[in-house]
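Hi R.,

Here are the chain sequences for the assembly we discussed:
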Amino acid sequence: MQTRLFASPSPHIHGGEKTQHIMGDVVLALVPALAVSTYVLGWRVLMITAISIASCVLFEYLIQRFLLKGRTTIGDLSAVVTGLLLAFNLPAGIPWWIVVIGALVAIGIGKMTFGGLGCNPFNPALTGRIFLLVAYPVQMTDWTTGVPDALSGSTFLANVKAGALSLGEVDYVALLSGHMNGSMGEIGALALLLGGVYLLWRRVISWHIPVAVLGTMMVFSLCVAIPDGGAMLWQMPLFHVLAGGAMLGAIFMATDYATSPMTHKGMIIYGVGIGLLTMIIRLWGAYPEGMSFAIFIMNAVTPLINKYCRPKRFGTKK
Amino acid sequence: MRTFPIGGIHPSDNKEWSKDKAIETLELPSEVYIPMIQHIGAPSTPIVKKGDKVLTGQLIGQSVGFVSANIHASVSGTVTSVDAYPNGQGQRRIMVVIKREGDEWVESIDRSTELKRECTLTSEQIIAKVKDAGIVGLGGAQFPTHVKLSVPNDQKAEVLIINGVECEPYLTSDYRNMIERAELILTGVEILMRAINVNRAVIGVENNKPDAIAHLRDIIAKNNYRGIEVMPLKVRYPQGGEKQLIAAVTGRQVPPPPALPISVGAVVCNISTAIAVYEAVQKNKPLIERVVTITGKELKSTHNYLARFGTPVHELFELAGIPEGDVKLLNGGPMMGRAIVDVSAPLIKGCSGLTVLSGKEAARGKELQCIKCAKCVEACPMGLEPYLLSKLAKLQKWDMAEAHNTADCIECGCCSYTCPSYLPLLDYIRIGKQTVMTNIRARAAAANKK
Amino acid sequence: MNELLLTVLTLSVLGALLAVILYFVAQKFRVDEDPRIDDVEKMLPGANCGGCGFAGCRAMSEALVKRDNISALFCPVAGGDTMKSIANFLGKTAAEKSPMVATMRCGGSCQKRPKVNHYDGALSCAVVNTFYVGESACAFGCIGYGDCVQACKFGALSLNPETGLVEVDPDKCTACGACVKACPKGLFELRKKWPKNRAIYVACRSKNRGAVVMKACKAGCIGCGKCEKVCQFGAITIDNFLAYIDPEKCKLCRKCVNECPTGAIHIVNMEPLAKEPKESASKGAANQKSAETAKNE
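And here is the predicted structure of the full complex:
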């Protein structure tokens, strides 16, 4: 065997963690939610997810190979995560071609335009979703494929907002287990929480962002509920944390590395911002759900947060 | 259990390869190459010339200025050359080459093995002896010890901290010293306490060495070493960094540079340095040898050797048996050690071990794009932003790098270790740090001139 | 109708008001600048390379306009003619400088200077230089990771993958000096530019003794002094076992080239002198050499 003498500056060993492993962990953490979604909304969920992932990976490959003419990095699995998250943000009944367009926007505009993985200012999956929400509002809010006996094919959030449903009538067990209408990935709070615990255990994410987002939403809705009093005091916070994209957003979308702040302090500010904006949009905005817009807006604020929230320098008091 | 406040990593310690190997005395080499710079500061001036006969322990390199250290012959014999020879990194440095003839020591050195505990010298006398003996920090930094012990008049030392952390993976020389030479360490600590006028000393030892902690405590109780305490610390790299250790032991953080540890009343010395101080003060023995670990997963044998400085490192590597295929030879441990590319290079004072990484471990992983995961920020024990500093250095934005405190970096390597994209963060930060430090010094010099 | 009128009126009044405010603000914060600075800047090449020692062409123009004596200022990119016309424009006298070209002084190609270890760190010469000598045993030679290539704003430098060395394109080189600063080994020198891009220089920076040089590299200067002896113009000096050809004294006679035992003296765009008969044995080598230099051009 040929002996090669290596030389490099220190350090000479590595912890072994890889981008690929991190992305793989995120995919794994999303599996329970996917399972719940498939169980509740049917096999179409798997089909849409597969289309979304396949188109994201394909677009990333094509852009890197033929437009940028550089090294392709689909092996890092980040496009798979984007595809999965994009699918999770779509209703199950969406036509397949809309999914492909969403994937093109997510990868092409959301990610590769800015230089690919790590350089994107906005969460690519969210970019795709928001584009579709604005471009295809009808298809994007068509919840008819789903739970047959649910209220008029509309989400809990929309029904509550429209006044069709009072918080007292909400089925909280359904909210937890996922037996309800909604985007493919946002139903089943328990399954998402499970994924979140897994990510925390694997140290892929830290607790700061999810806790800040959900905590702010609870506190804010509690404050809003105070004038009403009574059962509203627990119904309101619980409902808002469990319904809609709160869990998915707080655990999986807001914690996206490239678009969230670098320091713990920054993460908390960012999380609180998302929580506040979400609640404001939900309660007083035009849309029943505000999670994606809130994350999107806070993504834009992230560089500013990074500028002002520096880590505590060793040996200084602050 | 105590530890330092921010950052840090948990590399697997890999100490099992050599930790149970008792200290062996390495056979004396036939020829030694003794560099005139084995310390931080000005290189020493060689005071012998070709053809001179020297004795073991004889002064051959005179220190230049305050921050510098004496160099002594590590074997007896004839000086065959005083010239530039390559060090482990291939850089040519002035070395004195001595062809060994027997092992005749300078007479004033007490070579008996019995413990001599009584010390009545004053602080100044001790420091003078330490300076004469050419003692430098043996943990790896090679900072002259007499400079550390000379506490400025306007400041007061409150506690002596002894670094028995050995947080570098693989290395076990300090561990073996604690197990086998505990009395020497503790007597050395007593002397050091006398030198800086403190009545409290804390030996910080990481909790992965419970037998060393128990043994040291045992000896302290049995032989009544007053004021010395052994403090177990939570296992975490880089606990052996001076600032990290002070923070772990005292809870006080040394302010950013240019502040020194003494500003929080602490003086830090290594376990092995304490032994050297004991030998210098009580036995008149200059620093000519130390315990060195030679270790690696695929070596034929691993050892803890008591070896003389100047021994060509290939002699140690040959004894250990280097595996075939890809290897990386390190002077020091895998986190902060320096890669050796020339094995004719000599063993030097700061070398606590020779680590051999082989096979896959020898090569670095493939570099990918930064995903802004902030793991480096979390791991940095100095509260810096490695991803940013690395980028700034790469773009040569020195002013911005300075504003983001690049000069604070202790080069522990936690950032590169933890990066999931295998970015060589520290490689670039180091350039940034060096440039920024040069700029700062140049500005200070310019300001002085005015 | 009334509404329309009101809108137009409001907007007009608002516009006029803002215009007045703007006018006063502009007056208050006006910076009086010599208009000639703009003119001079236009005459400069606008490369912002920093070769003049200033942060950019703007700063250089300011200095040119403001200083009475501009003989110390020179834009290497623009060259003497442009400097003269700028000086004429400003009514000052320009510095006279002969054109220069960057020269990379290492001839230790992969073949001549074998690699003895495998570098595995960040691909940057500066990083390599932070901790060791590089992949070969020579502590002075080209590291080959192209910090200079990146520093060059004119695309005059390129890394030859065959030799592992950096080459200079004299036609593109403006002698801005960026490579001189970028090279951690100090291999670049701005040397006099002869007509037809001719050049002669010692392609080695090793200050080691001959024996040490020979061990690390077959193309290095061993400091034997033969070239110094043969030079009739006193252009060659040996310092620290290293020969240096002073371009100001050299007359391009090329006698030294044939004397050099290691081929460390490189000539560019010139044929080597014919060897004297007694040295015919090494003629083949010389021919090969000239072919090599011809290829390098």
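The two ends of chain A are 56 Å apart (CA to CA). The first strand of chain A starts at residue 4 and ends at 7.

Let me know if anything looks off.

Best,
T.
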